Amino acid sequence: MASSSEMDVDTAQDTVVVAAVTLDPKKITKLDEMKALYCSEIPADRRLPEAFWTPYTAKLTVQGMRSCILLYRASEGKLVPRQFQLESTLALATGKDSEVDAGTGSGKTLCLLLPALLSQGGISIVVSPLKQTQEAQVEELIRLGVSALAINEDTSKEPELWQAIEKCKFNILVVQPEQLSMHQGHWPKFARMIRKNRFTKHINYVHVDEAHFIHIAGINRHGLNAFRPAWGNLTQFRLKMPKRVHFQSLSGTQPAHIKKTIRKHLLFEEKKLHCRLDNLHFTTPDPSAPWPDDYQLEKGMIFHQTIEGCTAAAKHLNQRLPSSMQEKGVIRAFHAGMSKDYREQVMKDFRDPDGVCRQLHVTEIASTGIDIRDLAYVVQYGMTNEVPGTLQRGGRCGRDGVSECIFLIMHELSAKNIDLSRFGNDVWALDDPDQPHSGNLTDKSKKEQRIGVGMAKIVQSTVCLRELFAKANGDTTENALKYTGRFCCNRHPGNSFRFGAFFPGKMLYQQPETHKVFYGDADEPYGTELKAATIAADSESLKRARPKYRPTVLRPSLVHKLERWRYNAWRAHPLRSITPASFILNDSSIETLSKLTLDEHLLSVDDLTTALGQTTTWKNKYAHAIFKEIQLFEAEVLALNIKAKAEEEERQKRRKLEIDQEMFRKADEEARRRVREAALERAKLGPKVAPVPVQPASGTRRSARLAKPAAAASDTAPAAPAAQPPVASSSTATAAPSVYVPARLLPTAPHAHGNAFSSSTQDVTQTAAERVQSLFRRVQNKEITLDEMHKLLGAHTYTTPTLF
């Protein structure tokens, strides 16, 4: 049957017109008719081999050919499904869950599209990790004629939009996992929607893209909490879906332990489909020097572990370009701290084969969802922790399957010294080869401690890198080690691998045997040896040049100041009713600015714009005001520091004065103590006061005067006999003892200098004697102790001399 029929139509002028009627493959159900349409529309050199259709029933063959025709038409003759894409689609069509393990750049997006093209109404949900990935997927799906929408925290809250979602106006919804369940204490709007049967009854398929995020981000691992636990909650999401809804996982890297986690959380187990890039080379050289100024850059991508490193590297290498090429956008930074407009602008230019940007410095945000066909190289700068993440980044290049490209891993030398002996010879047999070699981690664990066993093994081994990566992924197929370029990797001494073919210019090398450092051409690494003094000087220079960031304690204050500025700027915006404040300055940019200082990073408005990756238009509108806010903040901090320093100096002075006063007081007390102790010692040996009888409680009034000692008598008076103790009165049951009070203990008028007591007993007054007898009576009645009596008489508590 032909793909179109020709009819003769009589017009008013009796002219014969040939009209072509395109057949709708969705209405064809017979195998013979579908084969005829398939062969008439799909060129012979692009059809799948006949042997591919043999295992399938007539019904599935019709569905498979239908999907081929629909895709071919939607792409205007550019795309035809590959075998694994069609296999995954037919697996869903037969009511099975499927697991697609396909290398990056192999076309996983079509695995999302084909089921939607085949379905008669209904929707598909795609769980996607990053906003950047969502945007790219939605753009591609819309281009192929499928209505799609990205749902994340930035999605509009307009009622009309959500009514359209609920009425299934979109064929594919690309959703972040945080929108599927409770997140940060509340239920997102989409999570509430999928709890209602009137919406879930329209869901046909769920595709979990980049499913390895379940393992690396959704579960607690190695002593650290999951940093995106919503990925680990997909089990609960599946349980809420009707049983007829089938799931499909897609990922570029699924070694055995990760596949086990995915299957556990998605509640299925299915055949693993292999797909790899045979035109990709692997290599792990030592760190290299910058590109020569006269070299025309090939298009490439360089991955960094931190935003700061990404920005600093792009800025440094831009300065290494010829002056005519600097600040032209040839080398750019790309990370999550930059605005959405900037990222879209840069990525559009980078995708363009004739674009200005030739080298893009990126972070983890670019490891998924970035499809650039003409990359010549990808560099991983700095050791990664896990093998899947490393392969995910390396898969950015070689995506056209034709051009020769290279994946370069640049690692720290310390990775060579990691001890792996306790893990045995076959680390790939471990339950989790990506476990940190140091054991469980904490938030304060150092970078070296976080390196996984698998990555350390790859760096330390001399075995073929492609073979090691195949073992890590559990890939034992016959094509696992296949490559189509000139070289496999740089670990085959006989294959004449040349760095110069990919990286012209000079590099730094360290000779493994001698640890000497050389600087030379890529193909002659050990040309010029760098002396130790030069290396040490360079190291010290690097240490001195290391930028200092704003102290952590000051960052919240600057964040608050910038948020207040953003609010005021938004209030003044003429279109604030439809423009969110984050369009002016998003939270990530505020966080970035809170770390950067004017002295080290933001020397000008241009530096601020570059650090945030903003456009010239944004710079002219907002950068100057933001820069002024930061200047005012640092001026306030400086003024507060000066004030705090002055107050601290004043406190130190007062403290010193208080210490001096305390020392003087203690010295004075010590002097007084010594005088009193000396007085007590002399009192033991000196003259005694005449005994004073203690009157009974019922007796008459006691004498008001003490007898004077014999030594106090007049010179002419005869010496008085020694005083005898009084005889006990017959009217008392027991006699009270006489009290002999040392005269030196009795309070007397102070000496003229105030620090000594008079030793004369002639000045003892009647009042003092009465006081002594009163205190002694209280001692007898056990109202006070002798020590307390001593205190009242002026002696220290730790001196208890015998008074009687």
UniProtKB/TrEMBL annotation:
Keyword terms: ATP-binding, Coiled coil, DNA-binding, Helicase, Hydrolase, Isomerase, Nucleotide-binding
Keyword Amino-acid biosynthesis: no
All residue ranges annotated as the Helicase ATP-binding domain in the record: 89-272
Annotated region described as Disordered, given as residue ranges: 687-730
EC number(s) recorded for this UniProt protein: 5.6.2.4
InterPro entries: DEAD/DEAH_box_helicase_dom, Helicase_ATP-bd, Helicase_C-like, P-loop_NTPase
GO cellular component: chromosome; cytoplasm
Cross-referenced PROSITE patterns: HELICASE_ATP_BIND_1 (PS51192), HELICASE_CTER (PS51194)
Enzyme class: isomerase
Reactions this protein catalyses: Couples ATP hydrolysis with the unwinding of duplex DNA by translocating in the 3'-5' direction
Protein name (Swiss-Prot/TrEMBL): DNA 3'-5' helicase
Organism the protein comes from: Ephemerocybe angulata
